[in-house]
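Input.
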Amino acid sequence: MKIINLGETNSVLNNFMAQMRDKDIQKDPMRFRRNLERVGEIFAYEISKVLDYSPKAFCTPLGIADIPTYDNRLVIATILRAGLPLHQGILNFFDNAQNAFVAAYRKYDKGDDFHINIEYSSTPELEGKTLILADTMLATGASLEITYNKLIEKGEPAHTHLVCPVSSIYAVEYIQQHLPSDKVTLWVAAIDEELTTKSYIVPGLGDAGDLAYGTKI
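Output.
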């Protein structure tokens, strides 16, 4: 599996990531959502560089312009709810893409033990398409694996791009072991070294869903 860490190269992406992590700036949900959306736009731009292109003729008022544009049939998927601003940022650039949504969450069994529960999914046919699966936080990798397997019930994508801005080293290793390495690329902006006993990323940024949309019951 190819892993691309955009945070290893200095760019304005690091500014947005720093603001998303900053506990004082996090107090503004609108700023948090907007930064997450802008991060999605940057990932979309970088992913656009590895798509398949062919030249096409476009009529201008004065003649014909031959311009290479991408040929991939794109589907953007996200895990509700934290991934919604990230999803929107990717969709801002790939505005003709189809969309998929999965409601997956941690259901605690006893103490810190939990399993991933999926309550809802909506996706178009995926056979032969390019899937972009976005989730803000990649802590253990379990929810992403389960979501991926749920999505491919609708067909096998030609290639899948996983967009996970903040990831743990544990989850990166887990995904490498459990998803098809020849058909998946993992895009991150930071790989953090620690998980707590409750599987929260350290230093991470907290609960992205709560920061974007408010605390939940």
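The chain has one domain: 2-52+71-213.
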